[in-house]
Amino acid sequence: MTKVTIDTALEQHHLQKLIKQFPQAEFCLCEELAEEKELLLETEVLVTYGWKLTAELVRRMPKLKWIQALRAGVDNFPDGEITKQGIVVTTVRGIHGIPMAEHAFGMMLSFSRELLAFRGAQSQKQWRRDMSPNEIYGMTLGVVGTGSIGREVARRGTAFGMMVLGVNTSGNPVDGIEKMFSAKKLEVLLKQCDYVVVTLPLTDATYHMFGEQEFSQMKSTAYFINLARGQVVEEPAMVKALQEKEIAGAGLDVFEEEPLSPNSPLWEMENVLITPHLAALSPRYTTRAVDVFATNLAAYLAAESLHNVMNWKRGY
Hints:
Elements: E1 2-6, H1 12-21, E2 25-29, H2 37-42, E3 45-48, H3 55-59, E4 66-69, H4 79-84, E5 88-90, H5 97-112, H6 115-123, E6 140-144, H7 148-159, E7 163-168, E8 179-182, H8 186-190, E9 195-198, H9 212-217, E10 223-226, H10 235-243, E11 249-252, E12 272-274, H11 285-301
Parallel strand pairs: 1-2, 1-3, 3-4, 4-5, 6-7, 6-9, 7-8, 9-10, 10-11, 11-12
């Protein structure tokens, strides 16, 4: 019987669904896996967010063949040891699109309709009619990274009547995006956009993709939204661009160092909206993640190909 270890708390209805669907597997819930020597020795499949996954822990699981990550980004996983042991890693890439796209538009509309300023006026009991809310209709939206999240952002942009441009590695066409550019042509996109939404994975190629040069290429009236990874942006360059009004504002869910330092100037900028790396959160998150795992487990038990297999060289 295949031993499946889940090192995170699952609601009983999720666990019971898995037990009923896969009688040929034995499921073990264990949130402190490092303390369970016998379980480590027998685990063949590990389902995890990976926050506590170390190279040492991987070495202590000699029968481990497959890790199902319950998130899309696995940049903190001990990839060297995982690769050395020949362990397959799969992610839940694709389940984050809806909440993250809605988060992006929440930020965009907050800027466009001046909702932050109105909230500030409300806290002071001020009836202000001197502000000038704008529309996003007819604006140009640039989506940098056109995977599942980027495509959901693009769909909503089209629904709002925006012109949607996109960037990916190759510049190949993507359904729902009016014009695509390769990563080498990022400058061309930046110069046209009123809103830039970043949904890239973190790889060697995307590390510090946005620096002083890129922010200088944006319109002074443009807003920058980063839902990807903090390391995609050279943070001091972004701070400088905001301070010097090279760009109009930024909506930020991710940062180079998290939690964001209390000393960061970003906290006190009126043209910055900060959320603490939770754009992907949704009451439906776990259900979607478990569904992805169940699909993969069915394939694994049937000796078929798994979905969303991590490519360490590519970075996602």
